[in-house]
Amino acid sequence: MAEVIPLVILPGKGIEVLDQTLLPGEERYLSLNDVAGVCEAIRTLRVRGAPLLGLVGAAGMAIAAMSRGSDGATLAASAAELIATRPTAVDLGTAVRAAMSEAIAATADERQERLWRFAGAYAERRREEDLAMATFGQALFDHPISVLTHCNTGALATGGIGTALGVIRTAWEQGEIEHVYATETRPLLQGARLTIWELQRLGIPATLLPDTAAASLLASGRVQTVITGADRVALNGDTANKVGTYGLAAVAARHAVPFVIAAPTSTFDPACNDGAGIPIEFRTDSEVGGFGEQRWSPPGTPAYNPAFDVTPAELIAAIVTERGLLRPPYWSAIRTMLGEL
User: Where do the domains of the chain lie, and which CATH numbers do they carry?
Assistant: First the structure.
């Protein structure tokens, strides 16, 4: 089973990232050794997935100290630049701020080395948390079922074995999942390009479907659980994820299919009471009017292109974390979990 390694940390030199915009056609690693390059890779989705963005942000701070200098003002400016690239995924800001705190606690001469150690430890913790999340997620399954997932939540999104896809992978290895359905995930096709690519590498039986066919699939009875990742979870359980997730949750509720979120505690935002406080990133019109160099809408066509939507907590049957399985009422469950950290 070929493992997916989306990021390699090279202390004192930079990072190498698998360019996810080229998959599945080409596996090419990019060498990044300056903050501008890291920001460009995040902004253009060469690297993506909330947990992986946290890891890239942590490494980006080490790169900032290496390439720009380790004085407090320079590091603070680099931190703000990194955080601004993707506003919805809370892991990015959380990791960058944690790295900044780590740097400030050291002398200027020690900061670069300390930031590289922090990034390495962050990567190891990410792998351990993915495995723990997958273990807790097995409580969701008591007999072999088929599941539906949306966007990409595997190793490409975390650097470990994945969040929702990590749960799916482990359940499949234990004989608890028979088949996976994956949406194509318009407009950038992360499901078609990335999730199916990962599932095929893992040898997991999978079927691709258009986003517009998901409601029909759920109505057909072929799917017994929907499981996705998250980019930010509010204190009341409202959850931001790739646009289209809300629609899946609503249709799943209509057909009594459990809708589950898998997300690490780093994705929970203690400063956000509910979904109304989650910032939603909007992306360019051009992403909707075609793909890559291929255009199919008339030039200048305006588009409504939010990258995320918010699923209300009442539609979520369970949230899988590396600390256990959360059930409603989420307000008390989440506050208890965060209070124990």
Answer: 7-130 (1.20.120.420), 135-339 (3.40.50.10470)
